[in-house]
């Protein structure tokens, strides 16, 4: 009967997933790939009337297997991930982000940037809150890559010394990367969350162009805004910034006091203890 077929299919599917999990845990990537192929084919042959779209399981397991399989190539990975994008439209942005990470791991920075640019302009149906969040995240990673390009240009200028400072084309290109990076990095850190790498890069941009007041504001907001989760790193970044800019010992001790409450064993507590001893003399 239809009910029995559905029940048997469910059991087979679960058993197959268990075999895949077992193979992956034992790092038997070839065996895992074979079971995943069987799993995907079984889904296609499902005769139940319910529509069964490509499962997130196939995307996640397939990605993991291709990342570790000894005979897997970047070409195969790209082909697989493009299929996952077109078949699972609601997951398009997540899959695109993972695709970019994989490209970056293989040193394909330009391709990763292109992939993020395509994803940034992608729309499906009416834009909802989740899509909006995912697009902001994609833009933030684009901002990181723009920061990376800015940093490379900055190093070229610094290496050339006085000659580099007179190279207008490098300076203009660098400023273009700065503008693009700053817009996207500034946007993502407005949303409550843990954005350490984005905050550090944005502050580096601001400090380089002498906007110390904005940098201080960003770091203070990141450390003390109650909407953000408690984050020891946020207080470390603020402390390091204040120290770089010659803030008073009182301000530095005050900052480290908060860090002490969060992580009493932090390595900066040695500095904190030294400062307290000196201030009590």
UniProtKB/TrEMBL annotation:
BP-aspect Gene Ontology terms: transcription by RNA polymerase I
Protein name: TAF1A polymerase
InterPro entries tied to this protein: SL1/TIF-IB_Component, TAF1A
Pfam families in alphabetical order: TAF1_subA (PF14929)
Record GO cellular component, one term: RNA polymerase I transcription regulator complex
Gene transcribed to yield this protein: Taf1a_1
